[in-house]
Amino acid sequence: MSYEENCPFCNLTKDHNQKIIVENKTCYFLQHDKQQDVLEGSGVIVPKVHRTTTFDLTKEEWMDTYELLHQAKDYLEQSYSPDGYTLGWNVGEASNQSILHSHFHVIPRYNDEPLAGKGLRHWLKKPENKRVKKEE
Question: Which residues lie closer than 8 Å to 127 by C-beta, 6 or more apart?
Fold first, then answer.
């Protein structure tokens, strides 16, 4: 079983602000108390075994992530009544993966939030994000 000593997702009990909401055989859906002020209801689905990126997940972990996503949605619908969701994985430094343990963001969205209608691509498709082509 793969485990990293300094990984917050491999050491869930070391952070009392991190709560397991639901779990299945290979994955957890977690919420962190300190993330709830701005991203109300947000959480992450993480494999129980340390996997650095999404591309390292096993087929079983993919299927269990799918199952847990639907369980998380049911929980969030009952607890928070969101108007939509932003879902996503960051993979690698260029994508801002700050914790090197695969984690799938599940972010409830609300019509009355200031950035309602702005999803993942909103920030990435801005002209200032265009790559400068290097001359050969």
Answer: none
pLDDT in tens, 75-125: 999 999 999 999 999 999 988 999 999 999 999 999 999 989 888 888 788
Helices (H) and strands (E) in the chain, counts: 2, 5
- For residue 91, what are the contacts with CB-CB under 8 A and spacing of at least 6? 53, 54, 55, 97
pLDDT band at 32 (very low <50, low <70, confident <90, very high): very high
Residues 6+ positions from 24 with CB-CB distance below 8 Å: 64, 67, 68, 71
Q: Could you give the CA distance from residue 76 to residue 79 in angstroms, rounded to a whole number?
A: 5
Among candidate residues 2, 59, 9, the one with its CA nearest the CA of residue 29: 9
Taken as a whole, the chain contains a residue count of 136
CA distances in angstroms from 91 to 13, 27, 60, 102, listed in the order given: 25, 18, 20, 8
